[in-house]
Amino acid sequence: MASENGCKWNKTALLVIDMQVVREHDPLGRDVELFRRHLYGDGKPKPTSKGSVGAELVDGLVIQEDDYKLVKTRFSAFFNTNLHSYLQGIGITNLVIIGVQTPNCIRQTVFDAVALDYERVTVIIDATAAATPDIHIANIIDMKNVGVVTPTLEEWCQSMEQ
Length: 162
Known about the structure:
Layout: E1 3-4, E2 7-8, E3 12-17, E4 21-23, E5 70-72, H1 83-89, E6 94-100, H2 102-115, E7 120-129, H3 133-144, H4 153-161
Pfam families: Isochorismatase
Domain Isochorismatase-like: 36-151
InterPro entries: Isochorismatase-like_dom, Isochorismatase-like_sf
């Protein structure tokens, strides 16, 4: 496929955070962050346990048979998962990240990707979101300041056509 400023598409992975990379927790909350454990008490609905509404894919997003679905228990898609090993094994050196909660899952995954020395980390700014536009933009600026590429979807698509 076309290159993204010199980056070959076949060396790039698209991570769809909290939509394809999903959170699923133990129904008893044993693998949940301490600040969320109160949500898993007796008689309470389990917000992101397997089979709950919170662990389902968003409407319209379908994981195909050949797609890789990653289950995570923390903000970062890299923390305590085999994502980095999997991506290295198939020759991925560049990441394009989209999805939700810019200040949490997106940001932590991006900072871990930078720390793991991925050659190019891209966050498509209008394909990610936060609770408010101000929170979203502040986090995008922080990520941009560590070398993350932050195009709009249109800009990114145009770069892929070149």
